[in-house]
C-alpha cells in the first residue's frame, strides 16, 4: 500500500481583490512543510495539483523546502469552488470587505448556507459546475491515484473544498459534515489516505506537523 498526502494551499489573500495569490505567510508555511519533510527523508513518487495559482505557488514553496524539482500532473478537478459566486447566488447585494471579526463570521455563515444549497441542487451559482460535477472531478483525481499509485507516496496540493470532499467521499459523510470539515481545514495542513487497489482509507486529517514548534505558534491560519 502507499500513502496519499493531501495538502491545502498556504495562506492566500483573503479579502483582497485577488484571493488566488499566496501571502508572505502562506509561502513561509509551504516552505516550512517542505523543510519538515526533507528533515525526515520524505520523498514523493508522484505530485498532483489543481491548476490555481495558489496551488502551484504552494507546491513551489514545498519543493524549495524539499530541495527538489518534481514533475507535476495538474488536474482541474482539484480546483476550488467559487466562493464569491456561491454567496452571490443567495445574497446578490454587495457585501462589505470582511475586515472585522463580525464581517468575517458573516461571510462564512453565508458561504456555509450557500454550500448547503448548492450541494442540494437548490442553487446554480453563475459560472460554476453543479455539485455532482464538482464531486466527480475530485473522485476522478482519487481514482487516478488508486489506479496508478498503489505502493507509492503521492503529494496532492489543492484547496479546502476538494480535500473535504475527498474525505467525505472516503468516509461517506453527509453534506453538512463535509461542509463542517471544509471550514476546519487550516492552511498548509496535511491529510493522509492509505492507498490500496480497492479503496482509499483515511489515516490523518488536518494536521500541522511542520508548525508544532513554539516559534511557529502564530503561523496557524485558516483563510
UniProtKB/TrEMBL annotation:
SUPFAM superfamilies (alphabetical): Phosphoglycerate mutase-like (SSF53254)
One Pfam family in the UniProt entry: His_Phos_1
A cellular component annotation (GO) from this entry: cytoplasm
One GO molecular-function entry: phosphatase activity
CDD domains documented for this protein: HP_PGM_like (cd07067)
Coiled-coil features, chain-numbered ranges: none
Domain of life of the source: Bacteria
Name by which UniProt lists this protein: Broad specificity phosphatase PhoE
